[in-house]
Design brief:
This protein is α+β, with helices and mostly antiparallel strands. Helix content is 37%, strand content 22%. It has six helices and ten strands; from the N terminus they run αααβββββαβββββαα. An eight-stranded mixed β-sheet has the order 1-8-4-5-6-7-3-2, covered by helices on one side. A two-stranded antiparallel sheet has the order 9-10. A hairpin with a 2-residue loop joins strand 6 and strand 7. The longest helix is centred in the first third of the chain and has 27 residues.
Length: 250
């Protein structure tokens, strides 16, 4: 469940204004909110790695591995992609313009007509080049391979995407990946006396789990303390956020 951006912004303002400590403009809030959401989102993967190395707990409502996986699963998506021919005899797909944006590569599947899909095995560039030069391990349509260079997936054999034409089977690729969360935005209009009025229709809520709302607010406050030049807020908020982080992995 998403976290309402207006709830977070008004809570942050309430804390800052309690003792007239300063004000955080919508522009400043949106920039900080985007950064903090990415920090918490990326920590999901770090926490999952730690939890998988810890003793398991199969309690329904206290299984931390399951909880983190459910948070990550929200961002899992897939879409058909168009593989084109690259100079050198490779297939290629550049995911820089993928929408939603790719945050972490999951799996690339290739389907030849009505046959069952096969996974395009992800290997290192070194392994890719070795396989290309070997007669015994050369990739085939049943056992294709790929490696990632920047934002481009390089594929062998060089089978490009194609529709079914004149009896020829369709050549289809499907990309599974973890999408990047949308940047949160507290949109507004300006009132008659210059005040900011919340515009819910054009705002973008946080996409991370609502279980992280307290940590989200505290981390935003720690950055806000720097903006308003109040080290007490930064220290208090950072300390409280650190306690939450520690409790989640201990």
């Amino acid at each position: 469940m998403a976290i309402n951006v207006n709830t977070v912004y008004t809570t942050v303002l309430a804390v800052l204004n309690k003792e007239q400590r300063g004000y955080l403009t919508p522009y400043e809030f949106n920039k900080i909110a985007t950064q903090v959401q990415l920090e918490i989102f990326e920590k999901y993967f770090e926490d999952l790695n730690i939890m998988l190395r810890s003793p398991s707990n199969d309690t329904e409502y206290a299984d931390r591995v399951k909880t983190i996986e459910e948070k990550i699963n929200t961002f899992e998506t897939n879409s058909d992609v168009t593989v084109t021919l690259k100079v050198g005899g490779f297939g290629q797909y550049n995911f820089s313009a993928q929408n939603p944006a790719v945050h972490r590569f999951g799996m690339l599947e290739y389907t030849n007509g009505s046959k069952l899909p096969v996974e395009v095995e992800k290997v290192s560039k070194h392994e890719f080049l070795l396989a290309r030069r070997s007669q015994l391990t050369a990739p085939t349509s049943q056992f294709p391979i790929c490696y990632i260079e920047g934002t481009t997936i390089i594929i062998l054999p060089a089978i490009i995407s194609a529709s079914s034409v004149s009896g020829s089977p369709a050549q289809v690729y499907n990309l599974d990946y973890i999408k990047k969360p949308a940047d949160p935005s507290w949109a507004f209009t300006v009132g008659t006396v210059g005040q900011y009025l919340y515009d819910s229709g054009n705002s973008v809520n946080f996409e991370i789990s609502d279980l992280d709302q307290s940590e989200l607010i505290l981390k935003i406050l720690s950055y806000a303390g720097v903006v308003v030049r109040d080290p007490e807020i930064t220290q208090a908020a950072a300390g409280a956020a650190a306690q939450i982080e520690q409790s989640q992995i201990s």
